[in-house]
Every structure is written in C-alpha cells, then in structure tokens.
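thought: fold this chain, then report.
action: predict
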Amino acid sequence: MNTQVDEMVGHPTRHFDAPKEVLTHPELSYSDKRRILESWKLDAQRLMDSTSENMTGGEESDLREVSRALVELKNTAPPPVAIQPKRNAPVGSGMTIGALLGAGVGLVVAAATATASVALIAQTTVAGLIVGGVAGALRRPVREPEL
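observation:
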C-alpha cells in the first residue's frame, strides 16, 4: 500500500473529491492522512498564490477545506507515546559508587598519613568517579525476560 499512499500524497485530488474523504478512509494511518492533507494544502496554497498573480484559469482553491480537515485530524490524533525511563542507569550508579569509594579511600589515606589534605580527598573522589563511570558503562545490563 506504500506506493498507493505515495501516489495519493503526490496527487490527492485524483483520489479524493474532498479533503474530508481523507479523514474517513479506513485503510490510511494517521500519518498517511496527515501526509496527504499536507500535500493537498501545499497544492492549494500554490494555486491560491498563482490566482493572486492572475496566473490561473480561475480554479478555486481548496485551502479552507483542507485546513479544516487538518485541524479535525489533529483533534483526533493518537495520544503521544510516553517515553519510559530507563530502569538501570549503570553509568550514573557506577559514577556514584566510584565517587563514594574514592572519597572513602582519600579519607583513609589522609587519616593514615596524618595529613588531612582536601586536595587528596578531592583527587581520589574524582578518580573514583571516573573509574566508576567507566566500569558502569562497560557493565552489561541485565536483560529482563520478555513477556
């Protein structure tokens, strides 16, 4: 049906007497109907522009009818598909764990050497953050069973 739809998009007035007929066509998807009506609207706009420049034989434009059909189609649009958030965020959780471990190592080293250095703790925290992020990115996510 794809080539038939492409033909309808290219020449809507050959297949439909009025824009409302596109809306009631049972075999067309929402997307196909929109493509056909948008094409028809473009043709009607071009005809209207030509008429305003006295370049036509007096044909009447279907612009108003097509615009109404597009509005009606938009009002019957399917609900948008919700994007499901990722259940596992291995990079983010890896970075968090790595940063916490790095900070812990920095604190232990600082306590063991008796030099409480903020720079040392910050460096080990950043190193842990990087290593944890890389480890999280390389970790293969566990696949959930398909239903």
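thought: worth noting. DSSP finds seven helices and no strands in the chain.
final: tokens above.
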